[in-house]
Automatic annotation (TrEMBL):
Transmembrane segments: none annotated. It holds the Pfam family KilA-N. Residues 1-125 form the KilA-N domain. It comes from Salmonella typhimurium. This is KilA-N domain-containing protein. InterPro entries: KilA/APSES_HTH, KilA_N.
Length: 183
């Protein structure tokens, strides 16, 4: 399965347990203040869903008898499996990470169109067999994300960006559509 999930050009990070970053989903949905993950997590229905997931054992662990502590509803409980919600404060991986079921619930809370977009993205990355063209598309998408970051953070010139785009196209086997004189 392809682990790279991108919605509207925003990469949705995953933690070591496969949970998805709600903060990235929030940005992909447009980043409106009223849809911040904190507000969704404070919702009674969300808390009940998290409690139900926790009661059922969290996310199945790949290692047997791995005990994870999960703080929910004012009490600290031991669980066999991985907690459905984990918040990382500070550092490069900061954010609130949730299991797949909670990703769908969060997307549904935001809007029907975003919910469908998330479902279709999950379907695309989980059901399609990985082909060479699919891998090329993944490489291209990763390259575009990296290039966007580098352009913003390193303040690359337009000619540098064009050169990088041409190399990226060549690397994934796409034809070079930019004129040579543009570099």
């Amino acid at each position: 399965m392809n682990n790279l999930m991108v919605i509207d050009g925003i990469e949705v990070r995953r933690d070591v347990h496969g949970r998805y970053c709600l903060n990235d989903l929030h940005r992909a949905a447009g980043g409106e203040q009223k849809y911040r993950p904190k507000y969704w997590l404070d919702n009674k229905q969300t808390r009940e869903l998290i409690e139900q997931l926790f009661t059922e054992g969290g996310i199945p662990s790949s290692e047997q008898n791995q005990s994870v502590s999960f703080f929910q509803g004012g009490r600290d409980t031991q669980n066999l499996g991985i907690a459905p919600v984990n918040t990382v404060r500070g550092g490069a991986e900061q954010g609130t990470y949730v299991c797949k079921e909670l990703v769908f619930a969060y997307a549904m809370w935001i809007s029907p169109s975003f919910h469908l977009k998330v479902i279709r993205t999950f379907d695309r990355i989980t059901s399609a067999p990985q082909t060479s063209s699919g891998m090329a598309a993944d490489k291209m998408q990763a390259g575009v994300i990296l290039l966007g970051f580098m352009r913003k953070e390193l303040n690359l010139s337009n000619s540098s960006v064009l050169g990088a785009c041409q190399k990226l196209q060549e690397a994934v086997g796409l034809p070079n559509l930019a004129p040579q004189y543009a570099i």
